[in-house]
């Protein structure tokens, strides 16, 4: 249910990946995506999406009878990040950036300087750092479905922006993407669970069931291995992360299908998410039973007075 992945600073430093932390610093996102105290309230998230609409770039919704409304600038203030920089994500228009620029991106990320036409790039064909940036983008910037192993034109542009340290207007990208999730007829996870729960708290929503971030919500060994990195075993070794050129096809087979490593990683994530959802449902059942009992007690009280009037 929650697709965002939290970055643990100490773990990335141990793995010699300060370069990735620097990419987040350049965006002003480091504090936001390394906050291990974040949590998510799934019932409130579901209500938010059910009542959500986007009108003239302004998002309007309601959660637990509290009206929620914000534009990109206001959302940036809530999340503590700047609402400036590139703010377009249009998958439907592959040439919004121009054919020449798209060819350059495909050449850079596929490591094939001879390409003449834009093309989707397999995740496993990228350098490890670019794979990680792509993976981060489809989990945290533009939450997508599982098993996505190809970067389309806009994915490539996002990877390049992050790689070069160019500003990205995350709040302005979030709002229309939330609108697409809310109105799509296809199955879609409810994205931005942690970030939207921060928004709910800002507006004073009384959360029904906030669950803290779990180990499954952290970027770990499986993710880095799936991006072609050689892991550093143990802390404080001083070793640096190995990056292969070209990287081995860890995350996709020659046919473009996920490998056993990728499938195992996604299976572990699904198991964790199912456990989280099960806990939320169990807690919700307990809460509903308590409310039902309170209602019965309230109804029984007047009847008791009628049957046994006070002397």
SSE order? HHHEHEEEHHEHEHHHEHH
For the biggest sheet, the summary is: 3 strands, antiparallel
* Count of alpha and pi helical runs: 12
Could you tell me how far the N terminus lies from the C terminus, measured between alpha carbons in angstroms?
A: 57 Å
Tally of extended strands? 7
**Secondary structure: helix percent:** 40-55%
Structural class: mainly alpha
Strand-residue proportion = 5-15%
Q: What is the rounded Rg? A: 23 Å
If strands are numbered along the chain, what order do they take across the biggest sheet?
Answer: 2-3-4
- For the record, the count of structural domains works out to 1
- Give the averaged pLDDT, no decimals: 80
> Low-confidence spans: pLDDT under 50, at least 5 residues?
235-257, 304-308
| Global outline | globular
Quaternary structure classification: single chain
Defining traits:
single chain, 311 residues, mainly alpha, 3-stranded antiparallel beta sheet, two-stranded antiparallel sheet, 12 helices, 7 strands
Would you write up a description of this structure?
With 311 residues, this protein is mainly alpha-helical. The protein is built from 12 helices and 7 strands. The protein has one domain. It is 49% helix and 8% strand. The strands form 3 sheets. The protein has a 3-stranded antiparallel beta sheet. Strands 1-7 form a two-stranded antiparallel sheet. A two-stranded antiparallel ribbon has the order 5-6. Helix 5 crosses helix 9 and helix 6 crosses helix 8. The longest helix has 48 residues. The protein starts with 8 loop residues before the first helix and ends with a helix. 31% of the residues are buried. About 9% of the residues have low confidence.
């Amino acid at each position: 249910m929650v697709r965002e992945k939290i970055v643990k600073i100490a773990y990335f430093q141990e793995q010699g990946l300060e370069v990735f932390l620097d990419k987040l610093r350049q965006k002003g996102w480091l504090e936001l995506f390394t906050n291990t105290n974040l949590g998510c309230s799934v019932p409130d998230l579901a209500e938010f999406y059910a009542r959500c609409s986007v009108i003239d770039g302004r998002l309007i919704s309601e959660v637990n009878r509290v009206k929620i409304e914000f534009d990109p600038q206001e959302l940036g203030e809530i999340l503590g990040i700047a609402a400036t920089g590139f703010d377009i994500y249009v998958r439907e228009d592959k040439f919004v950036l121009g054919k020449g620029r798209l060819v350059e991106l495909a050449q850079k990320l596929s490591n094939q300087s001879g390409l003449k036409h834009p093309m989707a790039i397999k995740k496993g064909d990228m350098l490890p750092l670019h794979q990680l940036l792509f993976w981060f983008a489809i989990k945290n910037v533009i939450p997508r479905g599982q098993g996505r192993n190809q970067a389309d034109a806009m994915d490539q542009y996002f990877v390049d922006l992050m790689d070069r340290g160019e500003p990205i207007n995350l709040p302005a990208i979030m709002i229309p993407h939330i609108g697409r999730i809310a109105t799509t007829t296809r199955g879609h996870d409810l994205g931005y669970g942690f970030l939207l729960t921060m928004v709910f708290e800002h507006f004073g929503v009384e959360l029904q069931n906030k669950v803290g971030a779990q180990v499954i919500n952290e970027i770990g060994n499986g993710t880095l291995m799936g991006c072609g990195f050689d892991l550093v075993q143990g802390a404080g070794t001083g070793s640096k992360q190995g990056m292969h050129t070209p990287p081995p096809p860890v995350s996709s087979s020659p046919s473009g299908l996920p490998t056993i490593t990728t499938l195992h990683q996604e299976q572990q994530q699904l198991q964790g998410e199912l456990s989280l959802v099960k806990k939320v449902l169990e807690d919700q059942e307990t809460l509903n039973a308590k409310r039902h009992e309170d209602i019965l007690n309230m109804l029984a009280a007047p009847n008791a007075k009628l049957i046994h009037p006070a002397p």
